[in-house]
Amino acid sequence: MTSASQGLAGTAHEPDDRGHFGPYGGRFMPEALIAAVDEVAAEYEKARHDPEFLAELDRLQRDYAGRPSPVTDARRLAEHAGGARILLKREDLNHTGSHKINNVLGQALLTKRMGKRRVIAETGAGQHGVATATAAALMGLECQVYMGEVDTERQALNVARMRLLGAEVVPVTTGSRTLKDALNEAYRDWVSSVGHTHYILGTAAGPHPFPRMVRDFHRVIGLEAREQVLAAYDRLPDAVVACVGGGSNAIGIFHPFLDDAGVRLVGYEAAGDGVETGRHAASITGGSPGALHGAMSYLLQDADGQTLETHSISAGLDYPGVGPEHAFLADAGRATYEPVTDAEAMDAFRLLCRTEGIIPAIESAHAIAGALRLGRELGPDATILVNLSGRGDKDVDTAARWFGVVDPESLPTEEPPPGTDAQTGEREL
Amino acid sequence: MTRSVTGVDRLGEVFTTAKAEDRAALIAYLPAGYPTVKGSLGLLTQALEAGADLVEVGLPYSDPVLDGPVIQHAVDAALKAGVRVRDTLEVVEQLAARGGRAVVMTYWNPVLRYGVDAFARDLASAGGLGVITPDLVPDEGAGWLDAAGREGLAPIFLVAPSSTDERIAATTAATRGFLYAASTMGVTGARDAVSDTATTLVERARTHTDLPIGVGLGVRNGAQAGEVARFADGVIVGSALVSAAEHGRAAVARLTTELAAGVRGQHTGR
Ligand SMILES: Cc1ncc(COP(=O)(O)O)c(C=O)c1O
Hints:
Chain A is 40% helix and 18% strand. Chain A has helices at 34-47, 51-64, 75-78, 100-113, 127-139, 149-154, 156-164, 179-193, 210-233, 248-254, 283-286, 324-332, 342-356, 362-378, 396-403; strands at residues 20-21, 24-28, 71-73, 85-90, 118-123, 142-148, 168-172, 197-199, 239-244, 264-272, 288-292, 294-299, 335-341, 383-388. A six-stranded mixed beta sheet of chain A has the order 3-4-14-9-10-13, with helices on both faces. Chain B has a nine-stranded parallel beta sheet. The interface between A and B is large, with 34 and 39 residues.
């Protein structure tokens, strides 16, 4: 079986020396941090050729995170997808409950190599924060996690997990109080602390080398899955699909299939209440090129280049930007990106619970919804590989409200989620 | 278009005049649109009248990653009140019409969206002298450098204590007008003491360039301005003035007067 370190071996699809994927990527950031990202780039370059580093990464991914993750043939779900074969790449079974650990273990090892003693992270759903807090505990690093105040409320379970793991969680109260603002605060911290702190960026976005490096740490998802699907079915999937927030789980599973011309790659963006309502987070579908948080990419912005507020039921997808390699793949037509609304995602969430006994992260439910749609389009002969990027424990509260399965009185706030039946406050499960 | 007297030339005069008077130049930052567009014009005019040699007109942006709470709050308020990019250009135009010297301080995405060439053209015709770009480094600035060169505007880049000598050399080579030296590793915000990393950074930069060097981040009173004036060509004050602006024109005038005395070595300390 493929090992995690093979993801770092280099491919035919690399950015230029300064991190440009065509017109996207690069470094749009303060000079004060350039030395730090240069150091990260240089250290990563050394590490990925260092057999000791690679062996340590593989050991942790295997013995600690539990890789390889299995591929599950979701037969009962498939009945709702026009009979197409739906294969789930089970990143939800990794330690800490999502794909985020793949990147974090790599960057935490890098932090040690750079001799830094503290890590910071931004988090939306809290999965990246939990993974970072976990790796920090494992490696004896100080850890501070920035999280929008709105997200600390809707992902309260993960806040508690991070605190149990010894991390300090800082609720961010500026701007829209979600993931974008958490990134801003993490950058502000890093400018002041860069001498002893590494910023473990949680997605395949930001300034060079993050989009490429984070992608490499996640390529193991696609490398394993490709091998697993070939071994079990003696063929490649017709399509590989994933949800896209910043784009790390998607690029991780897409990348090893880039040269397989017959394999369709589809990313599903959070459409919130619907792209046409303006209340969404679909950066490629509804955005335009611009620079945010260190890179040029698609961005939700107004006519003056101000970042727009986003909306998604999924905290991890509630972000106005996307990694630059996705922008590049979208323009090149090699991957396509489609919107999935809150309601579609929650329908898929329920369906996966009820047909397969798997409670997905709401982020991942967007990919499930996309796969159902695509399966009906491609028909019963098709095989669709879905990245099930995380598990849904953190979302039980949100889902319970959405479906009205818990007495609303017992929940911390009384406001019903958008789309709830106005009369009864309930929803069919 | 080639202008007979360019923004770069007029920016140069700010520093030659100060030098002739054996002092540093005082550079005052305030955001356009705070508290209102008209109000910001009044405050900036006040700063120029009370002794600022040059003003930096801040272009409000939704995600100011290099700014601390004071400036974040002010630009947030300006954006909530509906300030637009063209308001910043308008403020510059009004200041220039009264003989004031102004550069724009802006994060890069609003300029990208406006169009780099169009922004350079419109800023130059408004009478602006240059642009300070906190999140654009020369590495990504080819298009901007062309446009600025064409319009006679000064591209003003930053160096930081963490900048390597190689980067200081490349950054100063791309910069015109003056070099912006960030005094400490951190975001904008008034600080109690001027860090000694600033002197070291200015000394390092001087080995690469004859450009005037302005030092910013953290200066908040006349005494600190006096300290910085001993080793820098320009003293840049932002957050402290924005805090003063919360109390109105008189407070801005008072602080600017104190800072102007400071850069002349006349501030007696407090
Ligand atoms: C389970 C899960 N999937 C997906 C995402 C979205 O991130 P990305 O697009 O980087 O994979 C998150 C982010 O929090 C997540 O927790």
